[in-house]
Amino acid sequence: MAGRNFLFVPGPTNVPDRVLRSMVVAMEDHRSSKFPELTRALFADLKRVFQSQDGEVFIFPSTGTGAWEAALANTLSPGDHVLAARYGQFSHLWIDMMQRLGLEVQVIDVEWGEGAPEARIGEILGADRAQRIKGVMIVHNETATGVTSDIAAVRRAMDAAQHPALLYVDAVSSLGSLDFRMSEWQVDLAVTGSQKGLMLPAGLGIVCASPRALDAAKSAKCKRVFFDFADMRRTNPDGYFPYTPPLPLLYGLRTSLDILFEEGLEHVFARHRRLAAGVREAVAAWGLATCCRHPRWYSDTVTAVMVPPDVNGAHVIDVAFRRYNLALGAGLSKLAGKLFRIGHLGDLNELMLLGALGGTEMAMADVGIRIELGSGVAAAQDYWRRTDPVPKRRVARSEVVYASHSTGSINT
Ligand SMILES: *Cc1c(COP(=O)(O)O)cnc(C)c1O
User: Fold this and answer.
1) Nearest CA to ligand 1 atom 12
2) Are strands 133-139 and 56-61 parallel, antiparallel or unpaired?
3) Are residues 297 and 159 in the same domain?
């Protein structure tokens, strides 16, 4: 098929040409005296993306799932009690992993389409007088439903309960796209993968651990070998890995971090907010609902669009792919068939999204959803025309500091 495939699943995301080119490298000796120049800067720069002042970054040849396992296995012991909220397929899979690692998981089930229930978390922690709960597990951006939880509010609830549990956050579909403040929110373990906001192929599982998390690792008894922080900590400070690192991905990561810092993290976040708002205008113009139940949880990286009950969402996705070369995300597990998802994260601009919205409209009309062709495209165009574009600022990497903590006039 001529032209580009329109990749609008919420991961893997589009890999910028510049990143692609930077990954075409000859292999080299990862134990050379030069290699640490690459790796040490990667650790330091990833910390800036996590907005962590005192954390330590680990890069595993893995995916986000491996990063989950590393975070859990290094800091917990079999039989430990943990508290987890379930509101979508990714929080569900994480809970499944915890159970398989032998943890005692207290699950708070909430409607899929809602976010982390901070009040309920606070109540449970407040009632845990013996402080048996060792960890609170939150998926920052539930990619299955297009819901972003309020990590700051979860932290406030934990502090109000004066509970010492560690805070674990899955930031796989938020880091590098949404404002993520590891230090400010006192997150102890944050995990991500390379193929979402970092705009790379899958293959890196990345963890940022707080000093408290590293302390917990000293007595944690869950079995780990490949994912052991201790092996990494013996070699990482000198710029080396305990085993062969995936060199092309590390070079790609160098470039993707450069791209993020050149745009400026705060501008990256503002761009995602702006693009997402345009997509939501389109969905409203179609007369359809999002899976997300309340505006406070709107995700700026993925929008899950509910299809009418007589339509199978999988049909929309298949027609979009076969007829229009457009890849949309599927409904997962209990949402299968009920929705389709538009990923809007990573290397993306307004016109790319207009193409995706146009293709989505055609596919929806083809399967019999009664929408007016062009209505969503026009609504997004109108939104993007009447709101200020995010300024294109180019700054030297050395000038970039942490993302602005202001929330109001971020794109002025
Ligand atoms: C994609 C995703 C994962 C899984 O990551 P893999 O890299 O596929 O292992 C986990 N959590 C969330 C929120 C995700 O979006």
Assistant:
1) 172
2) unpaired
3) no
| For range 92-107, the mean pLDDT | 98
Identify whether residues 176 and 317 lie together within a single domain. no
Locate the ligand 1 atom nearest the alpha carbon of residue 140 and give its number: 13
Q: Is the same domain home to 322 and 309?
A: yes
The ligand 1 atom at the shortest distance from the C-alpha of residue 90 is 11
Residue 3 falls inside a structural domain: no
> What count of residues does the chain have?
412
Query: How is 102-124 classified by DSSP, letter by letter?
Result: T-EEEEEE--BTB---HHHHHHH
Q: Are residues 244 and 177 in the same domain?
A: yes
Spatial contact of 195 and 14, defined as CB atoms under 8 Å apart: no
pTM of the model: 0.94
Between the CA of residue 4 and those of 320, 321, 324, 327, 355, what are the distances in Å?
14, 12, 10, 11, 11
Task: Read off the pLDDT of residues 164-209 as tens digits, 9 standing for 90 and up.
Answer: 999 999 999 999 999 999 999 999 999 999 999 999 999 999 999 9
Question: Which tokens hold the place of 195?
Answer: 């193929």
Q: Which residue's CA is minimally distant from atom 6 of ligand 1?
A: 64
287: domain CATH number is 3.90.1150.10
Is any atom of ligand 1 closer than 6 Å to the C-beta of 65? yes
**Co-location of 193 and 274 in the same domain:** no
What is the C-alpha separation between 70 and 209, in angstroms, rounded?
A: 10
Domain end: 240, 262, 284, which one? 262
Q: Residue 192: which domain range? A: 17-262
**Ligand 1 within 6 A of CB of 63:** yes
